Amino acid sequence: MNLPDLALPRPRLPVLTSLRFFAAFHVVLFHLQATKIAFLTGPLANFASIGYIGVSFFFVLSGFILVYTYAGRPLAKPQFWRARFARIYPAYAFSLFFTAPFFFFAIFNMKIPFFTFAAAHPIGVSLLVLSLLQSWVPAAALSWNTVAWSLSVEAFFYLLFPFLLPALLQRKRTLLVFFIVTCWLVSLGLATAYIVYKPDGLAHVDADVLLANGLNVLKFNPLVRLPEFLLGMATGILFLGGSNRPQLALALVAIAVIGFVAAAHFSHAIPYPILHTGFLSPLFAAFIYGLALRPSWSTFLENRVLVLLGDASYSLYLLHAAILPMFFLRPDGKVHNNGPLGIILAVLVVIGLCVLVYRFIEEPARRKLNPRHQKDAPQEQPAFA
């Protein structure tokens, strides 16, 4: 595919950085409701109940951003992988350090089914998590820091990206559209196969099912989640090679928002495996594409505060599930609800702490590990989940 002026520095897309905060906050809402810290009702409850789809959004966004950053430029594999490591591992390592006391106390002292596999294989599980390989082992995927499984998936995407990009850049525009549709159908097909064949023997599955190996493969295995990343990559190439008229932005964003609202409203009627794994990825791609056009009505998303929150959203994603319960757990292990004001204050404190982690741990470590970070690659950011 012929792409225009690839050698020139591309404009920053701070709007996409801000989006990361809202996607991460959606995950925060999901965990507030799932842990029964917050008892939401009505449309807000429906919205929070599908917060896990934020992971899919980040996988699509990751493919898009990496293409936007690297397409048409020299891509030395060791340098790329070093930049990726410097971007994701410092905050990841800090999250493991922060959550280690509870994790190791739990596996050695608490006989809870959720920790059974880790308790039986503490060294193996620890090595998997430290090496970003936990998502390949269904029973270990949620070990140590439960949300960190998505970084294991992202690490696999980063490993493949330098090989995938040249292959996709050679495809014509019509083939890329077909490729996007194919990626979506593959995700739907894998989820549908799980529902039809029931490998775990479960009549009903939802977000509370955590120990089913077949479901964990569908949710966490990097090969299963790869179509979402590929879809984002193909969307990024279409964006770079298109005329990109700002008039398209409103239509793309409107379609994405309407589709998302409908999915949230009818979420109880959509099978959990399908909704969790790639169902909304085309809508996410349309949303990202539309806002990347930077229409005038989206300039509020380029506000410095929102961009800072977007920068800190990676730490927010990694740490919120460990910090928030500290405000609400009673000595007997039960959740104490402090009311809406208490929840809002706790969330604000967590966000503030994560901004500090970004400023004083994540960014300094990245610069230390990757001193050759290119100034003309501003979109090199982890699109996690």
Structure described in brief:
Helices cover 66% and strands 0% of the residues. The chain has 385 residues and is mainly α. It has one domain (14-94, 152-369).
Structure description:
There is one protein chain. The chain is mainly α and 385 residues long. The protein has one domain. Helices cover 66% and strands 0% of the residues. It is built from 15 helices and no strands. α1 packs parallel to α14. The chain is globular. 45% of the residues are buried. The C terminus is likely disordered.
As for the number of domains, it is: 1
Q: Count all strands and give the number.
A: 0
| Global mean pLDDT | 91
The total of helices stands at 15
Ranges where pLDDT stays below 50 over 5 or more residues in a row are 374-379, 381-385
The best one-word shape is globular
Q: Profile the largest sheet.
A: none
Strand content bin: under 5%
Helical content, roughly? Answer: 55-70%
Radius of gyration, whole Å: 20 Å
Strand/helix succession: HHHHHHHHHHHHHHH
Q: Calculate the terminal CA-CA distance, rounded to whole Å.
A: 30 Å
